[in-house]
Design a protein that fits this description.
The protein is about 35% helix and about 15% strand. With about 210 residues, the protein is an alpha/beta fold. It folds into two domains: about 1-45 and about 100-205, Ribosomal protein L4/L1 (Ribosomal Protein L4, Chain: A); about 50-90, no CATH class. It starts with a strand and ends with a helix.
Length: about 210
């Protein structure tokens, strides 16, 4: 089994933890990661964009001017797409972008993403991650001590003090275990997880 150092919020080693190879040493399959990221981004789209065709815009009942003799180009309707205020040709209409992938594929992609982070030495395991109050400055100080630039921090459960302290720091996200996903793992440069959250991740993905 692979092992990882466990550090505290001061960056000091306080122990080590054994890692489940099924989760942290799985074969990295980029095509699975790609498929799941595409699915996640597609499912975020609302698909509500809509435009009017020439038959939907107001006006157009009268020919703007006579066909010949004016010196201007021929015009049959003010709703023409060539006119300001006219309809749009082949514009977007409401569309459903939702995609679905099998649960096994999603889990395999997440194992691949986590294994890639471990293999790249972009993973840190903390004994705990706690704050006494909502304090962005204190949270930024912890990030500086741990040498984190664009981290994803995974905690075992709801922690409003951490979530609110981190929300104004660019490229930083605090995520609960149940919300762990491939897109966020790959999007951030470092993956930081508490020991308690680590156990929950392995419990969900090892089988």
């Amino acid at each position: 089994m692979a092992k990882a150092d466990v550090i505290n919020m001061q960056g000091e080693k306080v122990g080590d933890v054994e890692l489940n190879d099924a989760v942290w040493a799985a074969e990295v399959k980029p095509y699975l990661i790609h498929d799941v990221v595409v699915m996640q981004l597609a499912n975020r789209r609302r698909g509500t964009a809509s435009t009017k065709t020439r038959g939907m815009v107001r006006g157009g009942g009268k020919k703007p001017w006579r066909q010949k003799g004016t010196g201007r180009a021929r015009a049959g309707s003010s709703t023409s797409p060539l006119w300001v205020g006219g309809g749009r040709v082949f514009g977007p209409k409401p569309k459903e972008y939702h995609m679905a992938l099998p649960k096994k594929v999603r889990k395999a992609a997440l194992r691949s993403a986590l294994s890639a982070r471990y293999a790249d030495a972009a993973m840190k395991v903390l004994d705990k991650l706690e704050l006494d109050a909502i304090n962005t400055k204190a949270f930024a100080g912890i990030m500086k001590v741990l040498k984190l630039s664009k981290p994803l921090l995974v905690v075992s459960g709801k922690n409003e003090l951490l979530e609110k302290s981190a929300r104004n720091i660019p490229h930083t996200k605090v995520l609960r275990v149940e919300g762990l996903n491939v897109y966020d793992v790959m999007r951030h440069e470092q993956f930081v997880v508490t020991v308690e959250a680590l156990a929950k991740i392995e419990g969900a993905l090892a089988s």
